[in-house]
Amino acid sequence: MTGEELAAFEQRLQTDSSLAEEVSFVQLTNEVVVGATFDALRNQMSNDIADIDASKNTRTWGLTGLILGIVSIGVVGMYTLSTEEDTTSVTAPALQTPSVIKNKPAEQSAASEKITQPATTEKTNQLHTQTDVRTASPDEKISLQTPLEKSTTDHTFTQIPVIKPAETIAHTPVSKTTDAVNPCDQITLKAVITSSPSCDDASNGSITIPINQISGGTKPYKISFNKSTDAGTKEHYAYLPAGTYNINITDANGCTKNFSSEVTEKNCRKTSYVFAPDKGQVCTITAKEDESYVLTILNMAGKQVYKTNTMEGSFEWQGLSQQGEYLTAGLYIYILEYTSGEKENGQITIVR
After folding, report:
1. Residues near 2 by beta carbon (within 8 Å), at least 6 away in sequence
2. How far does CA 268 lie from the centroid of its chain?
3. How many alpha carbons fall within 13 Å on the CB side of residue 222?
4. Taking all residues of the chain, what is their mean pLDDT, rounded to a whole number?
5. Which Pfam families match (predicted)?
6. Most CB contacts within 10 A, which of 20, 137, 189, 314?
7. 281, 277, 275, 273: which is closest to 345 by C-alpha?
8. Is there a shared CATH topology between the 187-266 domain and the 272-350 domain?
9. Where are the domains of the chain?
10. Is the pLDDT of residue 54 over 80?
11. Distances 46 to 28, 51, 349 between C-alpha atoms, Å
12. For residue 88, how many C-alpha atoms fall within 13 Å in the half-sphere facing its CB?
């Protein structure tokens, strides 16, 4: 539909609630049929791939054996070559250490040992008198570490001792204030916690805490489950209804960390049925307890073949159409519509 025809149809959907409900049901039917078709195609493809993989195994093993043989020959050849190279020895000529020749210092006269150097005088009116004049011997080294002053008589330089005042360092005691540190704040406890869902009409969920996957702190560890005062090493907790559970893990030093894990809820009712009406078998479809619903059965073309009135509990189907005729073998789709608005669907296979 296009243009004015489509606009008129959309206007009618807004005003006619029964038509809108019928269109919504047809859309749901199409989605369910397409999903079932893809499921059947996926199963067929999986079987075909398994057959193809089985036929390729023989050729794969033969090719693998050939490759391993070639690699083995190459490894043996490389090993032989490396062994021959290792047996060859090379003798290097000995290195001669050059001798160190020490030259004796030339003899010098006492007169030539005198050191002359121009002096720099900042103030001419400040001269100091040197009382101890040293003349270096020929074999003695003189280290000048103090200022020199030129003599006014023989033009030689003499050492003027520099007297430095003693340095006094005052040490002030430093007071340190150390706050108490909790050792548990310095560690981080880690754990791997897994959970499995529980059926909506049962208590069969579980939580697992592998103790060998706990890290941080100091071993051994203890586990306290759901605020229990009894801590131990139990790892698996079963028969749990849906909900959130608290887990405390404590190390050998008493450091504790709190974890939480959620057990979700799922629909565990059967959603796929196979039965043979010719052998007296019936298909029993289960629904939620204490909830009213309407059951609709469709063929793979999306055509309705059976529909119940509003009812509760389970429903037994003999594989008949709405008119009481036996339906052909094949795949059918069922849809449960609860009065709360929730919907469920599944598959039924009739075998003849």
Report:
1. none
2. 32
3. 14
4. 74
5. CHU_C
6. 189
7. 273
8. yes
9. 187-266, 272-350
10. no
11. 27, 9, 20
12. 5
CATH topology of domain 272-350: Immunoglobulin-like (2.60.40)
Residues 6+ apart with CB under 8 A from 35: none
Q: What's the pLDDT tens digit per position in 77-127?
A: 554 444 444 444 333 344 444 443 344 444 444 434 443 444 444 444 443
Residue at token pair 């704040």: 185
The maximal CA–CA distance of the chain, rounded, in angstroms, is 149
pLDDT in tens, 162-196: 555 555 555 555 555 556 788 898 889 999 999 99
Look at residue 275 and give its three-state secondary structure.
strand
- Amino acid letter for position 98: P
Percent of all residues in the chain with a pLDDT value above 90, rounded to a whole number: 37
- 325-345 confidence digits (pLDDT tens): 999 999 999 999 999 998 999
Q: Are 207 and 245 in contact (CB under 8 A)?
A: yes
Residue pair 129/151 in contact by the 8 Å Cβ criterion:
no
CATH 2.60.15.10 fits 187-266, yes or no: no
> Percent helix, strand, coil in the chain (nearest 5)?
30, 25, 50
